[in-house]
Amino acid sequence: MRSKIKAIVKGRVQGVGYRYFAYREALALRLNGYVKNLPDGDVEVVAEGEENSIEVFLQILKKGPSFAHVTDIRISKLLNEETFNGFSIDY
Asked: What is the mean pLDDT of residues 57-83?
C-alpha cells in the first residue's frame, strides 16, 4: 500500500548534512518527494512510497547523520494527490 507523509524535523538539522543524508536514504528506499531547509532552522521532508518503506525512512530520519541532533519530528499524512518523479533536495 502506498503512503505519503510530510515530516518537520526539529533540532540541530541544518549545516550538518541532514538534507543529503535524507536524500541518500530516500533513494535507497525508492521513495519519491523532496527535502528542504526551512527559514526557522527546521527541515521539511515530503515522501511517498510503500508504507513499510515510509516507516523505515521515518526511523532513519529520527537518527539523522552523525553531527545532527534531532529533538522532534512532526508527521502529517498527506493525500496522494500530487506525485513526484524521484527524490530531490530543494533549495
From this structure: 93
In the chain the domains, ranked by start, together with CATH numbers, are: 2-80 (3.30.70.100)
CA–CA distance, 42 with 51 (Å, rounded to integer): 24
Q: Which residues are catalytic?
A: 19, 37
Tell me the CA distances in angstroms from 18 to 5, 6, 62, 77, one per residue in order: 18, 16, 11, 22
Cβ(61)–Cβ(14) below 8 Å: no
pLDDT tens by residue, 17-38: 999 999 999 999 999 999 999 9
- Residue 77 CA, chain-centre distance (Å), reads 13
Query: Are residues 60 and 50 in contact, defined by beta-carbon separation less than 8 angstroms?
Result: no
